[in-house]
Amino acid sequence: MTARYDGRAVWSGASFEIPVGSFTAVLGPNGSGKTTLLRMVLGQLGPSSGSLQVFGRAPRRGDATIGYVPQRSDFDPELSISGRDFVHLGLDGHRWGIDLFEKVDHGAIDGALQAVGAAVYAEKSIGRLSGGEQQRLLLAQALVGDPRLLLMDEPLSYLDVRNQATIVQLIADVARSRNLTVILIAHDVNPLLRHVDNVVYVAAGRVAMGKLEDIITSQRLTEIYAAPVEVIRDSRGRVFVVGLEEEIAHPHA
C-alpha cells in the first residue's frame, strides 16, 4: 500500500495486519506520515495504490465502529461547554446546529464518563479543567458511540510524565474491558512499554510492523532509515533512539 498527500508520496510498500483486540503504537519522526495512516483508516484519504480494509471492508467516513481522539490543542480557558455536553458531541459530532442536543442518550454518555473516571467533573466547563482531565473527556467522547476500534493521535503530547502513565493505564484498562483494538500515535514509546502489543514504525518513506523488541533495535531502524541508528536501553528499561536527526530520538526522563 502507498500513501500520497498533497501530491507527494508519503510512504510506500506498507503491508501489515493489526490483530483485533491488540494495542498498537505508531511511532516515527515528525512528518513521516503517522497521521496520514489514521486519516486512511478514517476514510478521509484513500491509498494511491494497494488497498486498506477495516473490519473486512473499505474505510468510510463517519464509521460508528471507530472512535477517534485527534491531536489536542489547548482548549480556550473561556470555553464554557460542559464536560457532559462535550462528550455528547461524540454521538452527533457532525451536526453543530441548534438541534444538536434534541435526542440525548444519557445512558451512553454516563457510561463513557464513568469508564474514564470523568463523572466527577462532567458538569464543569472543559476550558477550566487540567490537561489530564480534558484528555479523559476526549477519550470519553471517542467511546460514547461504543466503537470497536479506538484511534488516538498523540494523546500524551500535552501531558507530564505522571499524567502520561495514568492516561496510558486508563486506555489499556478501557480497551481490555470493552475489547477494543487500539491504534495510538506517540512520539515516545516509553510510557507505552508495559501495554503495547505491536509497533508500527513510520519513517523515511517506509512502514514496518512487528513486536517492539523486533522493530525498535539498532539493526532494524538502521535498515528503515538507511542510516546509522542506535537503540539504547537503560537500567530502568527505557528506550532511547539515537540517530542523525533529533526528531527520531525518544528520550523521557
Explain what this protein looks like in three dimensions.
This protein is α/β, with parallel strands linked by helices. It is built from seven helices and ten strands. It has one domain (3-207): Rossmann fold. Helix content is 26%, strand content 18%. The strands form three sheets. The chain has a six-stranded mixed sheet, with helices on both faces. A two-stranded antiparallel sheet has the order 1-2. A two-stranded antiparallel sheet has the order 9-10. Helix 4 (131-143) runs parallel beside helix 5 (161-178). The chain is globular, with a radius of gyration of 19 Å.
Q: What gross morphology would you assign?
A: globular
Number of domains: 1
Uncertain runs are 94-101, 246-253
Beta content comes to 15-25%
How many H/I helical runs? 7
Oligomeric category: single chain
The third-level CATH topology is Rossmann fold
Based on the structure given, which CATH architecture is correct? 3-Layer(aba) Sandwich
Strand numbers in spatial order across the main sheet: 4-5-6-3-7-8
Structural class: alpha/beta
Report the mean per-residue pLDDT as an integer: 88
CATH class: Alpha Beta
Order of helices and strands: EEEHEHHHEHEEEHHEE
